[in-house]
Amino acid sequence: MKKTFRVAGKEVIVKETLYDKWVNYRDPIKGLERLHSRARRATFEALSGGYAGASKSRRSLSEYNPRGLDADSAILPDLPTLRNRCDDLARNNPVAVGAINTNVTNVIGTGLTLQSNIDWRVLNITEEEADSLQVQIENEWALFSESKNCDIARTINFLEMQALAFRSILTKGDVFAILPFQKQTKGFPFGFRIQLVEAERVMNPSYKRDTKELSGGVEKDVNGVPIAYHVARTHPNNTLYTKVTEWDRIPSYNPTTGLRNVIHLFDMVRIGQTRGIPYLAPVIEPLKQLGRYSEAELSAAVIAACLTVFVKTEVGDPALSPMAPTSEVGGTTADEDYKLAEGAIIDLRPGEDVSTVNPGRPNALFDPFVQAIFRQIGMGLEMPYEVLIQHFTASYSAARASLLAAWKVFTKKRKLVGDNFCQAVYENWMYEQVASGRINAPGYFDDPIIKRAYLGTTWVGPTRGMIDETKEVQAATDRINISMSSIAEETAALTGTDWEKKLPQIRKERQILKELGFVQVQNKSNNDEEMSKVEDMQKNMEG
């Protein structure tokens, strides 16, 4: 039998089950209420769609109704607080400090270095001419990037600037680089400079409210393209100097040359996002709570180490002094202080007793609990637990798997810095060199394809590292032997250097060893076939 109910303006048909009929027979009112409840439940489930997570009738989700905000509405109001908290954690929380330092060390290291990769086929020049030009470009770039004169404040060079910029992205969410031209100085034949600007200084002038055209200090056109950045002349949270009263409006691009005036470096995770989000933002609460818990456990352990015994009396004696450790043995409760030592004997008065303190510290469950929280924090930071705490106790395979998982993230971040910061700086620098005639690049300003061929680069950073060098090198050798990889790729991956630049030195060393009669042992295996392969490879390299 079927019954029809009207719920939320819709007619719902409910079919009676055998149990419904029995309830209706015993109590018609309860039976009707039961059918009506089933009709309401069916209606609400239909309205909520096919996902249980969208249900509004379940108790566990009934009050879980977050707002679907756009990127700027979700980020910009909370950004000052997020920056301040992440900055504090990056100074005072060991886990946060370790996570940021691990990222900076593996992504940037001592700095991403330039390898010029000119497309000589597009430029219609010989490979030898391209090699010669690449050497010149790299030498000129080294003169610029390794000098502190490239910094407008003449404080750090470009290699150190990369680490500082990336660290600012992690702690603040984003960083800005202004690219002005100044008068050349003696010994530094470049007018191009770099000025890093902290995230807080880019803000709406006069603290205006965010609008569609101006939000977070970034001025946009109707298509959302950044056309200018408003930079405060002093830090808004500065307590040493005057408050912010003046702003500079810096256009994004130079209208004459088309070069960038400002680089805005951040990791975009949402469409329409104007400003970056600090790296530690998703794990602020667990990091802070874990820090408090660790401090509490440490304090409890210190107190436990200080409290040794109590002397109990029937009436109490507030005049007793704290116990002080000493090598002196013996004493009575009439002394001004208690002398504790190995095998010490203390005479007690009538009615006095000694009780020991057992606070249960250090806590035996502290380490397992903290490790569980570390794993959750590691997932939020895209960093395996072993890499986060820099502790590898598992097998070689497990340790290597953790490093490889972390290295995928480090590689992605390195590409972010290389493509959006290093390459942008390099293109502005290259413009000046070609325009001034220091680098001869015919057609550079005439055709974008030719310009792109000259600007081909690879930004090389720290290597992945090796857990077992023998296995890693053997695997690299096997990849080369089956043409899966090249010697240049494997050399860059394992040592972070340019294989071609090593060839003259390798040739020189082998020639000297050969003249002195030394024999290089390449493989200790007794297998003749393997030995012949090694000898063939050596002959090919010498040739």
Structure description:
By secondary structure, this protein is of the alpha+beta class. Helices cover 45% and strands 11% of the residues. It is built from 17 helices and 15 strands. The strands form 6 sheets. It has a 4-stranded antiparallel β-sheet, with no helix packed on it. Strands 5-4-10 form a 3-stranded antiparallel β-sheet. The longest helix has 41 residues, at 396-436. The N and C termini lie far apart (93 Å). 19% of the residues are buried. Residues 320-328 and 521-527 have low confidence and may be disordered.
Keywords:
single chain; 543 residues; 11% strand; alpha+beta; 15 strands; 45% helix
Task: Indicate the radius of gyration in whole angstroms.
Answer: 35 Å
Main sheet characteristics: 4 strands, antiparallel
Individual helix count: 17
**Widest sheet: strand order?**
6-7-8-9
Give a count of the beta strands, DSSP E runs of length 2 or more: 15
Q: Which term fits the overall shape? A: extended
Quote the distance from N terminus to C terminus: 93 Å
* Structural category: alpha+beta
Amount of beta strand: 5-15%
Low-pLDDT stretches: 320-328, 521-527
Summarize the structure in short.
This protein is an alpha+beta fold.
Question: Secondary-structure blueprint of this entry?
Answer:
Layout: E1 2-7, E2 10-15, H1 18-26, H2 28-47, H3 71-75, H4 79-92, H5 94-107, E3 113-116, H6 120-123, H7 127-145, H8 158-172, E4 174-178, E5 195-197, E6 214-215, E7 218-220, E8 226-232, E9 247-251, E10 262-266, H9 284-306, E11 309-312, E12 324-325, E13 339-340, E14 353-356, H10 366-380, H11 385-389, H12 396-436, H13 448-454, E15 457-460, H14 469-481, H15 487-495, H16 499-516, H17 528-542
Parallel strand pairs: 12-13
Antiparallel strand pairs: 1-2, 3-15, 4-5, 4-10, 6-7, 7-8, 8-9, 11-14
Helix pairs in contact: 1-2, 4-5, 5-8, 9-10
